Amino acid sequence: MLSYQHAFHAGNHADILKHLTLTGVLTSLNKKDKPYTYFDTHSASGLYDLMDNRAEKTGEAAQGIMRLMSSFQSELSGSHPLLSAYFALIRQYTSKSLYPGSPEIGRLLLRPSDYMILSELHPQEIENLRRNMIKSPFCQTACSQIQIHARNGFEMLKALTPPKTKRGAVLIDPSYEEASDYLDVAETICAVNKKWSNGIIMLWYPLLAHRESEINQMLNDIQSSARSVNPNIEICDLRLEVAAKDSHQEMSLKEYQQSEKNPPRLYGSGMLVLNAPWHLKEEVSKEIEYIKEMLFVI
Questions:
Q1: Could you say which DSSP state residue 244 is in?
Q2: Residue 34 DSSP code
Q3: What is the C-alpha to C-alpha distance for residues 102 and 60, in angstroms, rounded to an integer?
Q4: DSSP bridge partners of 23
Q5: Rounded distance, CA 23 to CA 18, Å?
Q6: What is the pTM assigned to this prediction?
């Protein structure tokens, strides 16, 4: 299915966790002079208008990134360096009522020696992605450093890894519209990790009460396979829960939009990171606690 459009959800709590982690990983890779390749398997449009009627209908950005940034005081920068770095990247966008997706954040952090490979199947989203990557309002990264594939992201990743640069990272964040996505994620990550054992693999996943067994099986399969390749691999599982598990209500987007209280369609999300950089778990976990406090979650 190709019905999912991220414009409804850009800048929500799931994006905050996803892009905070991405910022930490790419910043860590940038500490060494050697080039790297960043893969993004489900890129979508890459840039979102928060004044778009789709974003306004759900109000998720207003309740998420805009609320969080407005509550953050400059004197907290020293005690929250990762959150501060993330805000520094996106503030130029949010000040114009825009929000950068993971391709744009990756592009902001890319150096002249690095590469980015993007994949998207949705026909409208990939046209938006191509347009946004050609002309970015705040980033001048050379187009020659960016490849865009109209291709299944799982197939792209398996075909193009390991990259020529040896070093690199990948972000995998499918829509999970189909139950098969959980199986495809696990199969893809296990296959890629076996042939690119030093690659940093970031997996975003939803916390859905009715999919708990599939989620747990997916995570267990990935971690078991990764540890069979390298018993000492650094794995971190980071979760931002925005509601109690039993508060989750499975509903359509239309029902969600029509509800006055906007009950949670998922009770949070997680990021599983294989070959996690040093201190990533501690850094992101600290910011998660602050985000919970500021957004008045559980």
A1: -
A2: S
A3: 17
A4: none
A5: 9
A6: 0.90
Contact of 20 with 14, CB cutoff 8 Å: no
pLDDT digits (tens, 9 = 90+) for 127-177: 999 999 887 777 777 778 999 999 999 999 999 999 999 999 999 999 898
Token pair, residue 232, equals 């000492």
Taking only the tens place, the pLDDT of each residue in 9-19 is 778 999 999 99
To the nearest 10 degrees (0 to 180), the angle between helices 13-29 and 102-109 is 20
CB 165 within 8 A of CB 37: yes
Give the three-class secondary structure for 46. Answer: coil
Over its C-alpha atoms, the chain yields an Rg (Å, rounded) of 18
The catalytic residue positions are 173
Say whether 112 sits in a helix, a strand or coil.
coil
* Burial track 269-282 (b if 16+ CB lie within 10 A, e otherwise): bbbbbbbbbeebbe
Euclidean distance between CA atoms 259 and 252, whole angstroms: 11
β-pairing verdict for 200-207 and 47-49: unpaired
According to DSSP, residue 208 is labeled -
